[in-house]
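Hi support team,

I submitted a single chain yesterday and got back a structure, but I'm not sure I'm reading the token output correctly. Could someone confirm the output below corresponds to the sequence I sent? I've pasted both exactly as they appear in my results page.

Thanks,
R.
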Amino acid sequence: MGGGVLITGTDTGVGKTFVACGLAALLRDFGYRVGVMKPAETGCAERDGELFPEDAFRLKEASGCDAPLDKICPYRLRQPLAPSIAAERTGMKIDIDRLMDVYHEINSGHDITLVEGAGGLMVPLLPSYTYADFAKVLKLPLIVVAANRLGAINHLLLTLEHASCKGLRVLGYVLNQIDSPLSLAAETNREVLANLSAAPCLAELPFLENMEAKKILPPDWFKERFAFSFIESALNRR
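Hi R., thanks for writing in. Yes, this is the structure output for that exact sequence:
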């Protein structure tokens, strides 16, 4: 059985899927067998009469994970809400035991499994059960993705503080520039955060205007920008 990592964020729309796919492709290029999982995906559009989990599909493509999409993403929900309320509004109940079984099944055949959350660490899967709780039960260390903009310092430090309160290990964070042009805040956030947190900055990713280009970036693009030693620590501490 391999190790696992939860890719979480400071908010929705900060680039978790982009980062998770990039890491999956990078690890695959290094020769690791990479498993992926998206426990619940909300805001799914319909394709061929079924809800299609676009993020989970991208994870599968980037990683080469041979698990079926139904396993990679056990819960697909139409409304763009927190999974707990999106499920409740359709009469569905998310089964945490099922999610843990699926995770262990995927993880058993891979060197590492990347689990992508929804929104941030405190987003609920059940009314009183968050992704932080899920990570704690499965002993998943975290990579936190933050939008590199004004407000990132507070949002990121609050997420790191909550992770610490939950007893979760943080491998580091990624500053992802989602706006253009580069703001003064984005230019200085990394330096400020280095003085406020012991968690390392794993990468500072530039703005990419072409959204389609994000889906086909080669592993070398990520290799040039990511500190790789952090992920090896997750593999070595199983």
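A quick pointer for reading it: The two ends are 8 Å apart (CA to CA). Let us know if anything else looks off.

Best,
Support desk
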